């Protein structure tokens, strides 16, 4: 019996330590990736500001519903409720043609927020697309650990997104529709 109490006591200490460290971990994360596309900056911006085109390069949830209004202005976006991705909302928050787009993704009714910026710079070989995202999970003991790995996880996803964006833009030669 004494041996069993020690095991349970040790397990409780490990659990308490795990939760305490998780609470102390920063819930913030950020990631940046870039790619050069062989299209003019104006064409790249025109494609990026059309949220209906994002399905060509982004993971796309089911049940997407447009927010209404213009497809290209601040506030344009969509919401979704998907068994795989959960529920959420995406909206453009800032546009500075032809060089900057900013957006916000709200997940599960505000449980997590992701803010992203896409900057377009002219370069010798085309347009450099610099995509950055940052998020905040708050002081959640589990999500504190998750935030530790977001740079790698989200970075890999952004690399895939940028590669699909590059293929889409270079393959079309100009903005479709």
Could you give the count of β-strands? Answer: 7
| Cross-sheet strand order for the largest sheet | 1-7-6-5-4-3-2
> What's the CATH class label?
Alpha Beta
Q: What name does the CATH topology carry?
A: Alpha-D-Glucose-1,6-Bisphosphate, Chain A, domain 4
Q: Summarize the helix and strand pattern as letters.
A: HEHEEEEEEH
Radius of gyration from CA coordinates = 20 Å
**Beta-strand percentage range:** 25-35%
Largest sheet: 7 strands, antiparallel
Secondary-structure content class: alpha+beta
CATH architecture: 2-Layer Sandwich
Low-confidence parts: 173-177
Number of helices: 3
Q: CATH superfamily, please?
A: START domain
The N- and C-terminal alpha carbons lie at a distance of 74 Å
Query: What number of domains?
Result: 1
Level of helix content? 25-40%
Gross geometry: elongated
Average pLDDT score: 87
């Amino acid at each position: 019996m004494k041996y069993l109490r020690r095991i349970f006591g040790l397990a409780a200490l490990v659990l308490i330590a795990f939760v305490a460290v998780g609470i102390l971990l920063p819930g913030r994360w950020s990631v940046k990736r870039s790619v050069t596309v062989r299209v003019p900056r104006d064409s790249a911006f025109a494609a990026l500001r059309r949220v209906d085109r994002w399905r060509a390069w982004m993971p796309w949830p089911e049940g997407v519903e447009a927010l209404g209004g213009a497809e290209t202005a601040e506030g344009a976006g969509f919401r979704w409720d998907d068994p795989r991705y959960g529920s959420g909302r995406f909206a453009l928050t800032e546009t500075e043609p032809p060089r900057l787009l900013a957006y916000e993704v709200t997940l599960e009714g505000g449980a997590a927020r992701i803010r992203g910026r896409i900057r377009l710079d002219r370069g010798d070989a085309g347009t450099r697309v610099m995509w950055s995202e940052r998020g905040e999970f708050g002081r959640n003991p589990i999500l504190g650990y998750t935030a530790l790995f977001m740079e790698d996880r989200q970075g890999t996803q952004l690399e895939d997104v940028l590669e699909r964006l590059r293929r889409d833009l270079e393959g079309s030669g100009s903005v479709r529709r």
